[in-house]
Amino acid sequence: MENQKFYYDNKIVKLFVLATIIWGVVGILAGLLIALQLAFPVFNLGLEFTSFGRVRPIHTNAIIFAFVGNAIFAGVYYSMQRLLKTRMFSDVLSRINFWGWQLIIVLAALTLVLGFTTSKEYAELEWPIDILIAAIWVIFGWNMIGTILIRRVQHIYAAIWWYIATFLGVAMLHVVNSFELPISLFKSYSIYAGAQDAVVQWWYGHNAVAFFLTTPFLGLMYYYLPKAVNRPIYSYRLSIIHFWSLIFLYMWAGPHHLLYQALPEWAQALGTTFSVMLIAPSWGGMINGFLTLRGAWDKVRDSAALKFFVVALTAYGMATFEGPMMSLKNVNSITHFTDWTIAHVHIAGMGWNGGLVFGMLYWLVPVIFRTKLFSNKLANMHFWISTLGILVYAIPLYWAAVTQWLMWREYTPEGFLAYPNFLETLTQILPMYTLRVAGGLFYLIGFLFFAYNMFKTIAAGSFVADEAAEAPARVDHGPIDNDKETVHRWLERRGAKFAIVAFVALAIGGAVEIIPMIFIKSNVPTLKTVTPYTPLELEGRDIYMKEGCYTCHSQMIRPFRWETDRYGEYSKIGEFVYDHPYLWGSRRTGPDLARAGNTSSPMYKNAAWHYNHLMDPQQMNEQSIMPKYDWLATKEVDLSMTPGKIRAMKMLGVPYAEGYDKVAVDDLKKQAGKIAAELKTSGIDIAPTKEMVAMIAYLHKLGRDIAPADSSNAFFVPAMPYAISQEPKANAHK
Questions:
Q1: Fold annotation for 8-514
Q2: Closest by alpha carbon to 476, among 158, 161, 80, 153?
Q3: What sections of 214-254 are H helices per DSSP?
Q4: Taking 50 as the threshold, does the pLDDT of residue 62 lie above it?
Q5: Whole-angstrom Cα distance, residue 706 to residue 175?
Q6: Superfamily for 526-715?
């Protein structure tokens, strides 16, 4: 058969490669800044725009979606054309994909630094950007599917399987998790509440790691590792088992982030079971990668690309062992809320994702620019300093985590907490935070070596924008022949059917976990004493989210003695039925705040204490690492949005009285006036409508509806009809 001539599009690959390098520097710099802020609070710079709570989501979004996201697109656009023997379906769609994605990144940075956030982990961006993400992702999928349909090869190679699963998985996760009720251009509320929102969030959050940080990179591994070592992947059969078992099992694992928390036991059990099962396919992929290097380990000595691939596979194996182990309840009781989680995430991010990106680009850039790598010596320096950076970053955090757990649970011989003050623990781990800064600095220096090497290689190369290629046209072999072709080989020739089967495998786990949480009311029992937020408390909650307080403070007390003695009564599912979204938290850089408003809790503080603490935490305790929030005392609550927020909450099922939105501002002012009057008795003169007052109101709401006697199951009763009166309760701020 006569070969057809065509041209590969390298221009789009070049654009994504350059974006990967540039945004990688930005993301790591943001990470270094927040590491400095934890070790030395002065690096918060006293500004609302540079505080830890604002910068931390910028770091995570920059690394995940800017650095890693652009690397995915670069790797996919290059490999897909070669694997399918065709140019991308549409150059126009490719360019829209690139420029649209960069626009999303810029908008994300601007909105997050201004405090516009949903507070959802890895999904902090507000609804207009969510819509833009969905549109650009559809553009990417359209281009990918179109390319598969016009391919010149019969069977779809393993890397393409992972690309298809990535597109389908991310699309499903993003859409379901992003159902929000808009209030304004940059404000919305999740349609889910409490435990329901928690399940959806961590179904998304865990699987964002799975289908944005794992599956596309496995696809890249299946292409670029064999290319770099110049031999085929070790096992085709293992590839099949790895793919189908992983995409099926991953979707069930989200609840392992919510163990010992206010979540039905059946959901926790499912999350644990499937998380443990994930070890098998994950390590199957790692083994497939390592065995591809059989007989070629001598090449690793001379190739920086292969060195990074080895680091990536090692980190992938460690992270995918660590994750299932952390999902066991007895292990989770130790690691959850500690810095172990942070170390775990960064082993995966810096080692697995970073290592594979570096390995891919060290191989790819010289190829598309038709030159040799500028400096192998510099690449090897990058390898060793980055690997050192990973170790110096992670090991102190593991040490800090063990210290945290041991100190949190230690009792004196008399039966009292040995370290009742949270700061006693924090003081002990501050040296570990300093070492983390050093690890991040090493990683940044290594990245700068990498960036310089890449740009020098590009400058010395001869770029071919449209690379000539040829291949014969595809010929359909017809129906399956059981004697000559397996079912899977037949499926590989049917792109649409392959995608449908993959989608079904992806969707089952999420459906089984989410649907019962939404439609079976017994999964979310309510407490008769729990009331909706007053308008002032609702505004305070929004300020709490805007300032990123949830990044350091949890609001979830687990049923352990050392937690209840320190914080108060353990948390119940029914406490959170009016929370859109939930704010239970994932770490405790600061103490838990679930009972901050409960006068029977050791965590309770009066309004004056909260005012002084927010104005200058170091004045209250010089060992504190919390940023100042003194601007809250000068900024006004935007009262024009309050009626709309009340209407939105009522639409979401919060039982406010009909027409309450018309008097909500009046009630807000009355409650704010009482808090301002209480502050004045302590010598603090502040206008009632300042954000500080709203924040104090919210902190005094936390846990206020729950008394120790409410721990009995007798209090788990169906919700009673409730309507906020036009007059707020006299003790609403106490």
A1: Cytochrome C Oxidase; Chain A (1.20.210)
A2: 153
A3: 215-229, 236-250
A4: yes
A5: 35
A6: Cytochrome c-like domain (1.10.760.10)
* Neighbour count for residue 472 (Cβ, 10 Å): 12
Cis peptide bond upstream of 643, omega within 30:
no
Q: How far apart are CA 49 and CA 440, in angstroms?
A: 22
Q: 462, exposed or middle or buried, with CB in 10 Å at 0-12, 13-18, 19+?
A: exposed
Which stretch of DSSP H or E encloses residue 5? strand 3-9
CA gap 301, 295 in Å, rounded: 13
Q: How far apart are CA 374 and CA 381, in angstroms?
A: 13
Decide: 525 and 716 in contact? Cβ < 8 Å. Answer: yes
Q: pLDDT (tens digit, 9 = 90+) per residue, 623-640? A: 999 999 999 999 999 999
479: CB partners within 8 A, 6+ apart: none
Q: Which of 287-291, 484-488, 659-663, 687-691 has the lowest mean pLDDT?
A: 484-488
Cα–Cα distance, 171 to 51 (Å, whole number): 32
Q: Using 50, 70 and 90 to split pLDDT, how confident is the model at 522? A: confident
Question: Measured in whole angstroms, how far is the alpha carbon of residue 701 from the centre of its chain?
Answer: 28
Continuous segment of H or E residues that includes residue 468? strand 466-472
Instruction: Report pTM.
Output: 0.94
**Element holding 270 (H helix, E strand):** helix 265-277
Structure tokens at 681: 């008795």
| Bridge partners of residue 467, in order along the sequence | 8
Domain boundaries, the chain: 8-514, 526-715
- Please state the φ and ψ torsions of residue 467, each to the nearest 5 degrees: -90, 120
Place of tokens 């570990």: 432
Query: For residue 218, which of 321, 126, 356, 355 has the smallest C-alpha distance?
Result: 356
Instruction: Specify the residue for token string 């209250």.
Output: 620
- Distance between CA atoms of 312 and 242, rounded to whole angstroms? 17
